[in-house]
Design brief:
Layout (H helix, E strand, L loop, with lengths): L1 E2 L8 H4 L3 H8 L3 E5 L4 E3 L7 E5 L3 E7 L5 E7 L19 E6 L1 E7 H10 L1 H27 L2 H16 L3 E3 L2 H8 L3 H13 L3 E4 L2 E4 L2 H7 L2 H13 L2
Antiparallel strand pairs: 1-9, 2-8, 3-7, 4-8, 5-6, 5-7, 9-11, 10-11
The protein binds zinc ion.
The site of zinc ion has 6 residues, from helix 5.
């Protein structure tokens, strides 16, 4: 998936750090281009770098067996990939898969440890983000169990749109099926319903949100619960 247009310029966690500390950190973070399908970590992999997405999107996937994975969280402009490092753990529990290509700021884990220890505003921002990510993952777990495909698809599209700050993405139904843990046919059926309601438009490999308010009404409550938590945390 790709963001067709991008309005974001900076990672929100980095933006929350006071200028002086931020300038010092800038010497240790470097922009990297992440490409669609790139795996940043597999479960049990050592975390060698953390990533602060700017206009890319990374999915956190849990494997249930050799062939099946399910998306349990997503990280965009609002967060950091490699959060176990902020908890003193140097190993990933999930697969981190790039699902929207773009730029991220990358920092070595060794430097991150030192920044985390010596940079209280960064630490505070990461504690807050960890809470939000846990809330997102918990809500996603409940959503996958209780909510219908159409509502989940609407939620997923809105969450993706918020994180890449774009209304149009390049992605396939097959990819969406992997993310949502359903069949490709299930995704196509749900997308057709949203399309008939004029909420989205899709062509081969591309989805565009036409009516954001309508899509919010079609989404399950999980979208609003997580979004409100995030908006309140930023105040
Ligand atoms: Zn839900």
């Amino acid at each position: 998936m790709l963001a067709a247009k991008n309005l974001s310029t900076e990672n929100q966690l980095l933006a929350a750090i006071p200028r002086q500390a931020y300038r010092r950190m800038l010497k240790a973070v470097f922009p990297v281009e992440l490409v669609y399908g790139q795996v940043l970590y597999e479960p049990k992999d050592p975390i060698r770098h953390v990533y602060f997405p700017i206009d890319c999107l990374v999915s956190l996937l849990t494997a249930v067996d050799e062939h099946r994975t399910l998306e349990v969280g997503m990280v965009g402009n609002e967060g950091m990939v490699g959060m176990p490092m902020a908890l003193g753990i140097g190993v990933s529990a999930v697969r981190a898969l790039v699902q929207g290509h773009g730029t991220a700021m990358r920092m070595t884990s060794a430097r991150f440890r030192s920044e985390f220890k010596n940079n209280p505003p960064l630490r505070q921002a990461l504690f807050r983000y960890n809470h939000l990510l846990m809330a997102q993952i918990s809500q996603t777990a409940a959503c996958n169990r209780f909510h219908g495909m159409e509502a989940r698809l609407a939620r997923w599209l809105l969450m993706t749109s918020d994180r890449v700050r774009a209304d149009e993405f390049l992605l396939t139904h097959e990819f969406l099926a992997h993310m949502l843990g359903v069949t490709r046919v299930g995704v196509t059926k749900a997308a057709s319903i949203l399309h008939r309601k004029n909420l989205i438009d899709y062509r081969r490999g591309s989805i565009k949100i036409l009516d954001r308010k309508g899509l919010e009404a079609a989404a399950c409550t999980c979208y609003r619960i997580v979004k409100d938590l995030q908006d309140n945390a930023q105040r």
